[in-house]
Amino acid sequence: MDYSRKALADALAADYAAGTLRGGARRRFEKLLGAHPALQGAVSEWQARLMPLTGAVVPEPPPARVWQAVERRLWPAAAAQPWWRRLGPWRAASGFATAAALAFALLLSNPAPVPAPIVVVLQSTGAEGQMVSSFVASVGGDGRSLVTQPVQPVALAADRVLELWSVPPQGAPRSLGLIKANGTTVLVREKLPATLLSGGTAALAVSIEPPGGSPTGVPTGPVVYAGKLTL
Predict the structure, then answer these.
(1) Cβ distance 129 to 137 under 8 Å?
(2) CA-to-CA distance for 23 and 9, rounded, in angstroms?
(3) What is the torsion angle, in degrees rounded to the nearest 10, for the CA atoms of residue 7, residue 229, residue 142 and residue 134?
């Protein structure tokens, strides 16, 4: 396989950087990276493209059960009576400070699991000949936000806009709103379907529409980008 071919290297690098290249295929790709500068460059480019999308990930404070787990790991055989009551005042203060430091270090080394964002690469469908680039969409793992960004600016007529659609397994697409042809668009939970991450969306698509978006509630212009949402 000729990994120096730009199209092949770019497709593999996109899947790798987005996390959709998994299992044995991912391990084989990682072995190839050291010997193929073309693959290394493609991966670096895709990582740079995807990095701005992480800004939409909402920080999630660790729940109480995380601290409880820390305590269980630090003092698995603790007696029913709190340990600090069985120590002298000065030892209690010292022990508490040490435990706090250990708990903090443990939390840093074992952070609370945060759902990873789901990245969808929307490839050109070939419609409207000039649409040869691609879009990247990142859905927060908790479904709170969706971010889109074109890999390269999309050339549009002055009287046309891009509209993003949620395509269900069955039935008509649902509009998620207008997105920028040049730059990042952030769509918040209020604009997203409640079933976005629970089987209600099979794919994302982008169509060209008149100003203000589709007047009918379904795509009226050509669908120029599409990508499967894999959970």
Answers:
(1) no
(2) 18
(3) 40
**DSSP-assigned states of every residue in 41-79:** HHHHHHHHHHGGGGGGSPP-PPPHHHHHHHHHHH-TT--
Q: What is the tally of structural domains in the chain?
A: 3
Is 1 among the domain residues?
A: no
Task: Retrieve residue 186's tokens.
Answer: 């952030």
Angle, CA of 129, 130 and 132, to the nearest 5°: 95
Q: Is residue 43 part of a domain?
A: yes
How confident is residue 90, by pLDDT bands cut at 50, 70 and 90? very low
- What is the reported pTM? 0.54
Distance CA 141, CA 35 (A): 34
Reduced to 3 states, what is the DSSP secondary structure of residue 33?
helix
| CATH value at residue 140 | 2.60.40
Q: What is the dihedral of CA 12, 17, 18, 20, to 10 degrees?
A: 50
Structure tokens at 169: 């397994």
Q: What are phi and psi of 226, to 5 degrees?
A: -155, 145
211 and 144 in one domain? yes
Q: pLDDT value at position 151?
A: 81
Task: Provide the 3-class DSSP secondary structure of residue 80.
Answer: coil
User: Which residue among 79, 109, 139 closes a domain?
Assistant: 109
| Residues 88, 161 within the same domain | no
* pLDDT tens per residue, range 113-149: 556 778 888 888 877 665 667 888 888 777 778 888 8
